[in-house]
Specification:
Chain lengths: 169, 328
């Protein structure tokens, strides 16, 4: 059964409004591939903070390597600023178990010691398996565990939320 | 030996579980390795040059034949993946082939090895080890061929492909010349097979007839005895090391004559495309197969090859160690 999902573009506007005034003016936006990267770019533009935007592919830090192997299509992480001493807003599309965020924080520390890390997510669907909480949330949803909430981009570049049966379940 | 045995390097879903040869390795697997090496290549620029993928795993470099560079780059690659590395140099003379090699493997497996990186002077030795591990049900122990006899050197072939793709972006409109002792070169064999698999339209072998392997044309290769003719218009020139022991076998008249005909000089390189790159797997013999002015010149990508070799070996080890074992 497909749950009712909010409009991704409207949710992004809500998230940006909630961040305005809260995010440090010199903060860097770091998106987790792939959905988080799109949102980080959009948020940085909406908040006028495009000077420091980076992207993380957490494939080399995931905790399911032992059972699932290395994910194909790992991308190069790009952080073209000094992470040491920086205030970083980590950005992801969907916050679920918290495992991707754990991997992203570990990877960030291999670049340097940030002054602070905040977390912004488009959607928080609950179901945490680690003690991770977002600083800024666009929308909160209750979704059955056997569904994945997936962010995609349509031909016009508009963000769209969808639901799929969870891989492996 | 290799041709008679079933290829054990792919798992039940076609995923790479050992890396033994580029012969018959599907294009999708080659592309997966090259793509995965891209993010690994940038780890060298970070504060902490390590990722935790192989934490708690043990990589055994077992070299029955000496090699400083290959062993060192495998060691760095394994350490950047956070693995523990054990280096064993076992003189080929102290082993009586076949059985005793497998005894060595059984002993090291009992010490909880996860990956064996194997170099051996006998063609097919890594293949034999992989088949043995598969047969005794050690499905989570993986083998990487680091050079076997005259047969294959697949990670060198992959790092050569990575280097070519890095500078030329696409294989589908390239002319690549492989120059020198192709007959005795496992590097050349792996590279030519890899180039053919990824769809390189123009692969040339440039060598005297005494150093051209029989039936090399069956790989889709054109043979040139005249070097000026052979490298004309090429995008990539790969020079091979001339092994001095070949001189004794009366395959060649003299080193001086060889350099005159097949040594890469600035004057001969001018016949290739203006933006052609020059590669060499090392170690180089300056003044034998390559002039110093070319080796140290701006078209040379010989040192970047070494750096890329670390990333490619990280990609290979992290893909095989994460695979679910061989076909059963």
């Amino acid at each position: 059964m497909t749950p009712m999902l909010p409009d991704a573009e409207a949710t992004l506007t809500v998230l940006a409004d909630r961040m305005r005034g809260g995010v440090a003016p010199d903060a860097a936006f770091v998106g987790i591939y792939s959905g988080g990267a799109w949102i980080a770019e959009r948020l940085a533009k909406m908040l006028g903070q495009e000077h420091r935007v980076g992207f993380l592919d957490v494939s080399f830090y995931r905790d399911d390597y032992e059972r699932a192997g290395l994910k194909a299509n790992a991308r190069r992480s790009t952080l073209d600023f000094d992470v040491a001493g920086a205030t970083i807003v980590l950005v992801d599309d969907v916050l679920f178990t918290g495992r991707s965020v754990r991997a992203a924080i570990n990877e960030l520390f291999d670049y340097g010691r940030p002054a602070a890390i905040e977390l912004a997510v488009l959607v928080d669907r609950g179901g945490r398996e680690l003690p991770v909480e977002a600083t800024y949330v666009g929308a909160r949803l209750a979704v059955a565990r056997n569904l994945d909430i997936v962010l995609s981009r349509d031909a016009g570049g508009q963000l769209v939320l969808g639901a799929e049966a969870r891989a492996g379940d | 030996m290799g041709a008679r045995m079933r290829n054990p390097q792919l798992g039940k879903d076609g995923e790479l579980t050992h890396l033994l040869t580029l012969e018959g390795l599907p294009e999708a697997v080659i592309t997966q390795v090259l793509d995965t090496a891209v993010p690994f290549a940038s780890i060298g620029e970070r504060e902490v040059k390590k990722v935790p993928l192989l934490r708690g795993k043990a990589v055994f470099n077992i070299f029955f034949e000496n090699s400083t560079r290959t062993r060192t780059t495998f060691e760095i690659a394994a350490k950047r993946l956070s693995a523990d590395v054990i280096n064993l140099n076992i003189g080929a003379s102290s082993t009586s082939k076949g059985e005793s090699v497998l005894d060595t493997i059984d002993n090291l497996t009992a010490m909880d090895a996860d990956i064996f990186v194997v170099r051996h002077s006998e063609s097919g030795a890594p293949h034999l080890i992989a088949a043995h591990l598969n047969a005794i049900g050690r499905r989570h122990v993986h083998v990487v061929n680091a050079g076997d006899g005259r047969h294959q050197h697949p990670t060198q072939g992959l790092l050569d492909l990575f280097t070519i793709r890095h500078y030329k972006h696409d294989f589908r409109n390239l002319s690549v010349a492989v120059v020198g002792d192709v007959l005795h070169s496992r590097v050349a064999r792996s590279l030519i097979q890899g180039l053919a698999t990824v769809g390189t339209p123009d692969i040339r072998v440039v060598a005297p007839n005494t150093l051209v392997p029989a039936r090399v044309e069956s790989l889709g290769v054109r043979v040139f005895n005249d070097m000026r003719e052979g490298i004309k218009g090429c995008d990539v020139v790969v020079m091979l090391r001339l092994q001095s022991e070949r001189m004794r076998g009366a395959l060649l008249p003299s080193v001086g004559e060889y350099f005159k005909q097949y040594g890469l000089t600035p004057e001969k390189l001018a016949l290739a495309k203006p933006d052609a790159i020059v590669m060499h797997p090392g170690p180089m013999n300056r003044g034998v197969e390559i002039d110093s002015a070319v080796a140290d010149g701006e078209r040379s990508v010989i040192l970047p090859q070494v750096t890329f070799g670390i990333a490619v070996r990280m990609a290979v080890m992290s893909i095989i160690a994460g695979s679910q074992g061989p076909r059963t």
